[in-house]
Amino acid sequence: MLVAVLVSGISLTNGGAPARADAPLRPDSDPFYAASADLSSARPGAVMKSRQIALFGLPLPVQAWQLLYRTSDSAGRPTANMTTVLIPNVPWRGPGARPLLSYQIAEDSLSTRCAPSYALRGGWPIGLNTLLDAPFMADALRRGWAVVTSDYEGPESRFFDGVTSGRGVLDGIRAAREFAPGDVDATSPLGAYGYSGGAFATLWAAQLQPAYAPELRFAGVTSGGVPTDLPAIAREVDGGMQAGLALLIVHTTVRNTPEAGVAALLNDRGRAMLIEDADACGEELILKYNGARVADFAAVPDLLSHPAFRAATARQELGGTAPIAPMYLYHSTTDGVIPVAGFTALTERYCAQGADVSVIHSALPGHNPAAIGEAFGAMSYLEDRFAGVPVPAGCHAR
Q1: How much is the pLDDT for 111?
Q2: Residue 207: its pLDDT value, please?
C-alpha cells in the first residue's frame, strides 16, 4: 500500500512487477558496502562508489542512486556509510537550483539489514520504518525536491549515537552534492526532515553543522516526535506494548558506551539478550518483548536510574548547542512513547540560546497520529524556506 502511495504521490501510475527476480544482497554480504580505499586519506563526504538502483526494486518514476561515502563515528574513526539519492521525474519549477532535502528515516536498529538503503533497494523483508516514511518522501518528490537519505547509524548500527548520526547525515549531504544528479549542485537550498529516531539524527546534524560542516547552510530544519531524556522514554514504555524500545535503549547504551559498564549491571537473562538480539531491528524487539520489564534483565534495582546508565545516556542528549538554522519542531502533548516533557525542555534550551524556532505542541493524540497530521505543516515550512520567505526571529510556540 505505501509503495503505491509513493507512486501516486508523484502523480504517476504504479509500476507493476519487480525489476528483477533476485533479492539484493544484505549489506553485510554486499561488496558494494565495503570501502575499497584508505578511508583515512579521503575527505569527509567523499564519494567512493556509486550505483544506480531501482527504488524498492520496482520500475517507479524516480531516478535513484546509492553512494558509498566517507564519514567518521563519534570516536573519530573513519567509516564508510551508504546514502540513497532520489530525483523525481518532474522538473523543478522554482527559482534557482533544485532543493535538496536530507530526509532521516527512523533507522532504529542494531543491524545493517534494517538500514534504509537495503529497504530502498528492495531488500526483503523491507524495513517497516522505511515503508512508513515512504509517503512523506513521496510528498517531497512530488514538490520537485531531490531527497538524500543516509544510513546514518553507520556500519556498526549505532542507534542513538548522536555524533555518529549527525556526522553521517552531514557527510551524506556532502556526498549527494558532490555526485550532483538531476540539477542538484552546490547552490541547491538545503533542508532537513526527520521524525522520532529520524528527528534525533536530524537535530544532531543541525547542532553539529556550524563547526563540522560550515559550508552546509540549512534553509530550514523540521523535526517531530523528538527523542529526548532516553531513560524517561524507556520508563514510559516499560512493561507495555512498546517495551521492546526500552530494551533497545539498553542494547544501544551498552554498544555505544561500553566503558560505562552498563553490561555489568545486567543479570544472566540480560547478558543473553545482548547476544541473542545483537542484530535485531527495532520492530522485531517491539514484537518480541511486548509487556516485558527492564527489571527482569537487570542485576541492580531500577537500572534506568542507575548513575552509570544515566551518565551513558546523557552523552547522547540533544540541546548542548542550538542549531543556527531556523527550525519547525512538533510533538504530541499525549505522546505515549516519547514523553512531551523532554521535548518542552529541549525547545526551552534552544530558545534560551537564541534559536529561531516554531514550537508546535500538537493536540493530535499520540506518537503516530502526530507524525501523519503534523507533516503537512512541516513540509509547508520547508517549502517557504526554499522559496526564501523570511523567518520571524526568536521562538514562537503554539
Answers
A1: 94
A2: 98
Take residue 321 and report the three cell numbers written for it.
548547542
Domains of the chain (ranges, CATH numbers): 2-228+320-397 (3.40.50.1820), 230-314 (1.10.260.130)
Average pLDDT across each block of 10 residues of the chain; the chain has 398 residues. List them in order.
38 37 86 89 96 94 97 96 96 91 97 95 84 96 97 97 98 96 91 98 98 98 98 98 97 96 98 97 95 98 98 97 98 98 98 98 97 97 96 93
Q: What are 97's three cell numbers? A: 537550483
358 with 199: CB under 8 angstroms? no
